[in-house]
Backbone:
């Protein structure tokens, strides 16, 4: 993929990350197009979170480059433009939904008026005055999401945002991601369930800290001849490991 | 630093504190109640050769020590929670400056300390008849500074605690030795040399010396101000070291 660099939201080149004695990421190179929804898929423990933290700038990397919106990952200017939602909801449990989102709005220098509409957008309008620790797990995840959305980021990095959500909410959330991407926001979303892959424009398949493939859902089906993406992913891995040994 | 972010952080921490009613009550009342306890403890103890009662001597020093202990505990646990809950990593990925966060914590808890020290001083000087030779206002100022010292050391220590249990354990490790060596139980000049040297590098010693100055001398004295400058220095160093423990990038 040789897209011009200004159309790239994320450009990772030869990234290697070591965590302890374990090589968490090795020889990872990938590109995320601006305004796309890119799915980062792979089994639990394959390095998805490490890769996302490297993109957000919170991870110490051993070698390689990570360029985000044309700047090195972690640059001061990016803190305003990149939103990151961790896998476990990181919000203040003893504050109300509104107070949580309002605090993040102030951190991003956004007007107070955006708080209410953001809470509505994640479907928590009727819970705005509820303390976060009184919410269910799925609701808590959406508060965490709202805290990132309120910053109006150009790049939104979401670590397994749909885990534990009921099917209706999952669909609603994906529709929301799509509407963000239509507005030009780049969404990078990780998942360990393949049935969400079909909602993405582009897929990054990660396994054991290495990038297995970067392709669209259609390309994945064509390359493997499998209709179900889960099977396609398996076939891809099998042919890869078969080729190596 | 960004004034808007600093103010929002201070308000956020105060809001969190306000939701915890029991902590609010304890922060406000505990030092005052302990002063009353001290008063009755020393009720039947005869006054010393200089005519000053033992309670007077101890009460003024305790007005500085109690806020230190309470604020150290509250802050180290609050900050430790922020570190382990993932919110710290998250807010450090926003435009927030490290100093915004530390100053926010220091301001929020220090304003609680102002209420606490104000009430404790009112009880001591108004209700329990404690008398100081110097201006009472200085006692209040020192009590607040000591509370801020407790906040800044608590922020720093939180970095070395993985759990809330560990955070509480810093109390016997760091606070009680300072209390023992600060000159209240044994005058610092009567300590063995090596213990006096240790006492010399502990911030509480200087706060207590300042309080003893106010208790026994009229007006604003040079030694008192010198001691306060040292305490402020310790606060600045603890905050700077605390800032160094906040990492935007981790393994």
Residues:
């Amino acid at each position: 993929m040789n897209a011009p660099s200004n159309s790239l939201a994320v450009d990772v080149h030869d990234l290697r990350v070591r965590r302890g004695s374990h090589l968490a990421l090795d020889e990872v190179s990938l590109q995320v197009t601006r305004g796309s929804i890119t799915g980062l898929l792979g089994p639990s423990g394959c390095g998805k979170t490490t890769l996302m933290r490297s993109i957000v700038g919170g991870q110490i990397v051993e070698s390689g480059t990570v360029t985000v919106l044309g700047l090195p990952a972690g640059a001061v200017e990016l803190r305003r433009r990149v939103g990151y939602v961790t896998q476990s909801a990181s919000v203040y449990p003893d504050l109300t939904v509104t107070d949580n989102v309002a605090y993040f709005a102030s951190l991003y220098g956004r007007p107070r008026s955006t708080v209410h509409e953001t809470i509505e957008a994640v479907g928590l309008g009727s819970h705005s005055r509820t303390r976060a620790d009184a919410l269910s797990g799925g609701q808590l995840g959406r508060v965490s999401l709202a805290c990132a959305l309120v910053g109006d980021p150009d790049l939104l990095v979401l670590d397994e945002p749909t885990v534990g959500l009921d099917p209706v909410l999952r669909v609603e959330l994906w529709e929301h991601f799509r509407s963000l991407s239509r507005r030009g926001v780049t969404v990078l979303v990780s998942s360990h369930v393949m049935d969400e892959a079909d909602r993405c424009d582009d897929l990054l398949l990660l396994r054991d800290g290495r990038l297995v493939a970067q392709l669209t859902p259609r390309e994945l089906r064509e390359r493997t001849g499998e209709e179900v993406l889960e099977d396609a992913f398996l076939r891809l891995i099998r042919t890869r490991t078969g080729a190596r040994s | 630093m960004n004034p808007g972010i600093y103010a929002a952080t201070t308000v956020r921490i105060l809001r969190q504190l306000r939701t915890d009613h029991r902590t609010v009550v304890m922060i406000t009342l505990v030092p005052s109640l302990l002063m009353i306890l001290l008063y009755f403890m020393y009720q039947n103890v005869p006054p010393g050769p200089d005519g000053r009662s033992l309670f007077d001597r101890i009460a003024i020093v305790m007005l500085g020590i109690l806020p230190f202990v309470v604020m150290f505990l509250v802050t180290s646990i609050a900050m430790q929670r922020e570190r382990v809950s993932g919110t710290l990593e998250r807010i450090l990925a926003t435009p927030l400056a490290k100093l915004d966060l530390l100053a926010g914590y220091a301001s929020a808890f220090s304003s609680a300390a102002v209420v606490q020290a104000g009430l404790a001083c009112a009880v001591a000087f108004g209700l329990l008849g404690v008398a100081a030779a110097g201006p009472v206002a200085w006692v209040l100022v020192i009590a607040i500074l000591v509370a801020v010292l407790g906040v800044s050391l608590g922020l720093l220590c939180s970095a070395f605690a993985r759990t809330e249990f560990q955070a509480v354990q810093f109390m016997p490790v760091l606070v009680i030795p300072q209390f023992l060596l600060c000159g209240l139980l044994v005058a610092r000049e009567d300590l063995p040399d090596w213990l006096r040297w240790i006492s010399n590098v502990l911030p509480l010693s200087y706060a207590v010396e300042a309080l003893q100055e106010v208790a026994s001398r009229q007006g604003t004295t040079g030694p008192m101000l010198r001691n306060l400058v040292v305490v402020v220095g310790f606060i600045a160093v603890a905050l700077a070291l605390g800032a160094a423990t906040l990492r935007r990038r981790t393994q």
